[in-house]
Design goal:
By secondary structure, this protein is an alpha/beta fold. The chain is built from twelve helices and 14 strands. The strands form four sheets. The chain has a six-stranded parallel β-sheet with strand order 3-2-1-4-5-6, with helices on both faces. Bound molecules: nicotinamide-adenine-dinucleotide (NAD) and (2S)-2-hydroxybutanedioic acid.
Length: about 325
């Protein structure tokens, strides 16, 4: 019998949680032979709703689902956790400025980081989804100094998938034909979608889509502002696509990335590409045996270099605002 993998999902009663839990339980994340246990963490007011989702999970009779536990206690939720998916966060409310938002989330992600450090399994891997995801990941990492820093990621696979979707549509090919693109930096509108090394089939994107004006303008604008476009269209932020990106990210972490490809992963910089150490920064990476390796040596155009300087400054601004709260990240 294969031992179950224990997955903790925070914000389990939210929209992303609802789109995510059933896919994990059905085997989409770890494969059709791997049993899973779910630990659902919610705030006290939303525990009943999460418990309702747990009833539905039971009613699906998923063959791989071994156990579901719902709690508002972070220690219980992260106990023995192998993968911790930090989805729940304080949303921006009317009148809140960035400092207020960072402060509310700093409290949440420090508490959860401490609980992960104290209670999770030795091999725990953490993916932060709740915004501002990159800085929240840095906060959680700082609160769990005994967990290796490279195990704390922020979700930028959604940005990566959005870029693939746009290119595939434009070139009228299947998304699986698009490879080796990168979204550098922060999961914000300063992110830098970069197609200069990307391929469609075996041809350079700029050769396949012979429209530099579109690639350097509307394409980048669309990907970088897609979150806001979805919010305008749905009246709520992306949920199913975010959940799908979480599945893709963790599946690659667990099984390894495909050969001849890389994906975008935001994890603490170790100074690669001159990015200040510790910033949780989207970069190209491959995975094997549960470890990620940054793809090094890619050259930047002048335009990309200038854009990357802006996304670095954006993240440094968030980091400095958190430091002003007395939290050292
Ligand atoms: P939602 O409001 O539907 O759900 C959030 C849930 O988190 C709620 O049920 C809430 O009770 C819970 N929560 C709040 N604080 C918590 C805490 N301290 N502990 C446990 N649970 C807590 O939001 P959603 O649509 O599911 O989105 C969740 C987060 O993901 C938001 O911050 C959103 O901006 C972000 N997001 C990120 C990406 C990305 O690509 N990184 C994409 C989409 C959304
Ligand atoms: C997204 O990219 O869809 C979200 O991060 C947007 C948001 O602000 O929730």
């Amino acid at each position: 019998m294969t031992a179950p993998i224990r997955v903790t999902i925070t914000g389990a009663a939210g929209a992303i949680g609802y789109a995510l839990l059933f896919r994990i339980a059905s085997g989409a994340m770890f494969g059709s032979q791997q049993p899973v246990e779910l630990r659902l963490l919610e705030i006290p007011q939303a525990v009943d709703a999460a418990a309702g989702t747990a009833l539905e999970l039971s009613d699906c009779a998923f063959p791989l689902l071994r156990d579901v536990n719902v709690t508002d206690d972070a220690g219980t939720a992260f106990d023995g956790s192998n993968y911790a998916l930090l989805v729940g966060a304080m949303p921006r409310k009317q009148g809140m400025d960035r400092a207020d938002l960072l402060s509310a989330n700093a409290a949440i992600f420090s508490t959860q980081g401490r609980a992960i450090g104290a209670r999770a399994a030795d091999n725990v891997r953490v993916l932060v989804v709740g915004n501002p995801a990159n800085t929240n990941a840095a906060i959680a990492r700082a609160a769990a100094p005994d967990v290796p820093a490279e195990r704390f990621h922020a979700l930028m696979r959604l940005d990566h998938n959005r870029a693939i979707g746009q290119l595939a549509q434009r070139a009228a090919v299947a998304p699986s034909q698009v490879r080796k693109l990168t979204v550098w930096g922060n999961h914000s509108n300063t992110q830098v979608p970069d197609i200069d090394h990307a391929l469609i089939g075996d041809r350079a994107v700029r050769e396949c889509i012979a429209d530099d004006a579109w690639l350097d303008g509307p394409f980048i604008e669309c990907v970088a502002n897609r979150g806001a476009e979805i919010i305008r269209a749905r009246g709520a932020s992306s949920a199913a696509s975010a959940a799908s990106a979480v599945i893709d990210h963790v599946a690659d972490w667990h099984h390894g990335t495909a050969t001849n490809n890389w994906v975008t992963v935001a994890r603490p910089s170790q100074g690669e590409y001159g990015v200040p150490e510790g910033l949780v920064f989207g970069m190209p990476a491959t995975a094997s045996a549960g470890e990620w390796h940054t793809v090094e040596g890619l050259e930047w155009s002048d335009r990309t270099r200038a854009a990357i300087a802006r996304t670095v400054a954006d993240l440094e601004g968030e980091r400095d605002a958190v430091r002003e709260l007395g939290i050292s990240i």
